[in-house]
Amino acid sequence: MLKEYKSVTEVVGPLMTVEGVEGAAYEELVDIELQNGEKRRGRVIEIEGDKAMVQIFEGSSGINLKDTSVRFLGKPLELGVSPDMIGRVFDGLGEPIDDGPKIIPEEKIDINGTAINPVSRDYPSEFIQTGVSVIDGLNTLVRGQKLPIFSEAGLPHNELAAQIARQATVLSGGDFAVVFAAMGITFEEAQYFIDDFTKTGAIDRAVLFMNLANDPAIERLATPKMALTAAEYLAFEQGKHVLVILTDMTNYAEALREVSAARKEVPGRRGYPGYLYTDLAGIYERAGRIKGREGSITQIPILTMPEGDITHPIPDLTGYITEGQIILSTQLFKQGLEPPINAIPSLSRLKDKGIGEGKTREDHADTMNQIYAAYTAGKEAKELSAILGETALTETDKAFAQFADMFEKQYVSQGFETNRSILETLNLGWELLSIIPKTELKRIDDKLIEKYLGDKENEEEDSKDPKNLENEGL
């Protein structure tokens, strides 16, 4: 039997203290009725004796301590799931906001899921094509991986997120779905995502959760869990390969800090709660593959680094938990590169598991390593030229500097509308590597050089042959 209490003793920010409570449970859902009949919802976040601390989703403004009644519902916050969720847009608490019909759920699932048991995990080993060359060619995304994007305020991470969401696919086939969760974004940003998904048709395989900047911070804390609950249902119950994109995790962490301050908890680094690491891990570790199950969950969390500081607690802890990072560069953005991904510090720790013969192509690993080395050498040569002048460079240094320029213009800056296949990316890599003398391609097997560069050299020699020039009337 549900009990109703009128013993609210304190309200601080989004938190309410109720005394004389019996049998309340952690994460239990609560109905709150104000003196004017308005109803709000909350959840229990702390219990001490007969006191329960309740987190109010809609905020605490207008609450009268004496006349407010609280009812504990005996169940946690749940999401009603169904295959009909695909193609729909929801708010941060899982309510439809696209003027469509209500979802008739097949089941209701507690959003406070758990990380996948390590014993049950299957190792990520299958390539996911995003259509973005710097990711596919150099920082390969693997099915079941969690690969964050580190950005800064003002950089086009939203455009990159939308591009990946509409282009991503698994080459081996199978049903593919995208779960997109936006936290603390503006109305214009939310409309951009909805319009882009709708215009390109990506909405037909996507589920969108939108939490706006003017929505309560408490709702922001539930949004990624809602998205991951939907993803787990689609992946492990419906057998789909699900890509989860979470943006912006910085807004999520800020909401966590706000609630922590209201609870008067002892702050950790830069005011964030000491459990920020475990809280983020509870989100990120819900990605992966399960042995014996067809589906999988791959995560791309996106976060903006405050003041571009990669040592800030949010990117710092995210880097510990996830398997690499894609880093956007302000400098490349100012040069007009789209997307402005800085290839040198970016890293995918599982890339070697998703590339090679039978997955992408046999030359992928060698060309990836050579492109990294050549780009790094080219950047160093350009720095040397800026200090000592171009005359100080050898012919080889000049070739590497030219490679670095062409790499940024052609390989990195492909635009947000271009969808390159992995074969197009690999072939473009070989075209750029042809700028460098063969003797400097020390990271590629000679057989691969002969196979992919030999024909091009023969073509170039044929074009310079006097007989061919005569035939062309030159």
From TrEMBL:
Its BP terms in the Gene Ontology are:
proton motive force-driven plasma membrane ATP synthesis
User: InterPro entries given for it?
Assistant: ATP-synt_VA_C, ATPase_a/bsu_AS, ATPase_F1/V1/A1_a/bsu_N, ATPase_F1/V1/A1_a/bsu_nucl-bd, P-loop_NTPase, V-ATPase_su_B/beta
Domain ATP synthase A/B type C-terminal residues, every copy = 353-452
Pinpoint the ATPase F1/V1/A1 complex alpha/beta subunit nucleotide-binding domain residues: 131-348
- Please provide, alphabetically and separated by semicolons, the GO molecular function terms listed in this UniProt record: ATP binding; proton-transporting ATP synthase activity, rotational mechanism
- PROSITE patterns to which the protein is assigned, alphabetical: ATPASE_ALPHA_BETA
Query: Compositionally biased, Basic and acidic residues: which spans?
Result: 464-474
In residue numbers, the region (Disordered) covers 452-474
Task: Identify the domain of life.
Answer: Bacteria
User: Could you tell me which Gene3D superfamilies the record lists for this protein?
Assistant: 3.40.50.12240
Matching Pfam families, A to Z? ATP-synt_ab, ATP-synt_ab_N, ATP-synt_VA_C
- Where would I find the ATPase F1/V1/A1 complex alpha/beta subunit N-terminal domain in this sequence? 8-74
Q: Which UniProt keywords apply?
A: ATP synthesis, Hydrogen ion transport, Ion transport, Transport
> Which SUPFAM superfamilies does the protein's record reference?
C-terminal domain of alpha and beta subunits of F1 ATP synthase (SSF47917), P-loop containing nucleoside triphosphate hydrolases (SSF52540)
Q: Which CDD domains match?
A: ATP-synt_V_A-type_beta_C, ATP-synt_V_A-type_beta_N, V_A-ATPase_B
HAMAP family, alphabetically? Answer: ATP_synth_B_arch
Q: What does this protein do?
A: Produces ATP from ADP in the presence of a proton gradient across the membrane. The V-type beta chain is a regulatory subunit.
Q: Which family does it belong to?
A: Belongs to the ATPase alpha/beta chains family.
Question: In its UniProt entry, what is this protein called?
Answer: V-type ATP synthase beta chain
Taxonomic path: Bacteria, Bacillati, Bacillota, Tissierellia, Tissierellales
Name the gene for this chain. Answer: atpB
